[in-house]
Design goal:
three-stranded antiparallel β-sheet; alpha+beta; elongated; OB fold (Dihydrolipoamide Acetyltransferase, E2P); five-stranded mixed β-barrel; 43% helix
């Protein structure tokens, strides 16, 4: 029994060679969520199809939904120019792609996430501040996974005895008492920063100051690392490696000898997104 072809707007998240003249690709689609598919690209190194199977390029493709986990693409075309990303914006694009590959299950409708993904790429291509775009995308991703922050303890359990709050998976925010913080190695977050973050999430017009923005970043990293079971992101390692190379080049060009001590300081100072 033949199946009706399905047409979808998509973005390529990841691709790799699969058998002869084929690519196995992971896609974020507008109405079908994340799917895996095979596409025949031919033998030519200048294959048009192969050239289109690139990240950050808006595509429209046709495939047959044969109720298997691996779809077969029958037609593909571009719908708009590629989002041009460079430097830190490019690594940020790799980062959100890897989050989608690692954390989103296949064949689950996530239209809001698709829309947010496209908005994030647009903002990155326009060189808007990176951190706010990543935090907004991460929040949308968490919502798709059925997760959200309950900030009520940050407002209701605040007292002179509370230095700040831990964030514990499955529990949320737990008070970090003054008498215990010197004996517990678990990182805790500043209460005022968390309150500002809560207002920022629920009221977009509330801006984050620098310290609160850093706390927000660390909080999201903690949550995402838990979802990843502590397994490192390749995009983050790549970003860190490029930062090392860039800083080493700067030190070398300045005529200073890079000692192990200086290198260690540089590595501690890296801003990993």
């Amino acid at each position: 029994m033949s199946t009706k072809p399905i047409e979808q707007k998509v973005f390529v998240l990841h691709s790799r060679p699969f058998q002869e003249n084929q690519l196995l690709i992971e896609l974020l689609t507008e109405h079908k969520g994340k799917i895996s598919a095979l596409v025949y690209v031919g033998q030519s190194k200048r294959s048009i199809k192969k050239g289109m199977m690139q990240p950050f390029l808006p595509l429209k493709l046709t495939f047959k939904d044969n109720n298997t986990s691996l779809k077969r693409i029958t037609h593909v075309e571009t719908t708009a120019p590629s989002y041009v990303l460079s430097k830190d914006n490019l690594y940020s694009g790799f980062y959100i792609n890897e989050l989608l590959v690692r954390l989103i299950n296949e064949d689950i409708v996530c239209e809001a996430l698709f829309n947010q993904y496209q908005l994030t790429l647009s903002a990155l291509s326009e060189n808007l501040p990176i951190a706010p775009q990543l935090r907004q995308f991460e929040l949308c991703l968490l919502a798709e996974l059925g997760l959200s922050f309950d900030f009520s303890p940050v407002f209701n359990e605040n007292s002179d005895n509370v230095a700040g709050f831990y964030y514990v998976a499955e529990q949320g925010f737990v008070p970090a008492y003054q008498y215990a913080i010197t004996t517990i190695n678990t990182p805790w977050f500043n209460t005022e920063h968390l309150q500002v973050i809560a207002e920022h999430i629920h009221h977009d017009k509330v801006l984050l100051h620098k310290d609160a923005a850093q706390t927000f970043k660390l909080l999201m990293r903690l949550v995402i690392n838990h979802l990843l079971d502590g397994k490192p992101l390749n995009s983050r390692k790549l970003f860190t490696k490029k930062q090392i190379e860039s800083r080493d080049k700067y030190v070398s060009n300045s005529g200073n000898k890079t000692t192990d001590k200086i290198r260690e300081k540089h590595e501690r100072d890296f801003i990993r997104r």
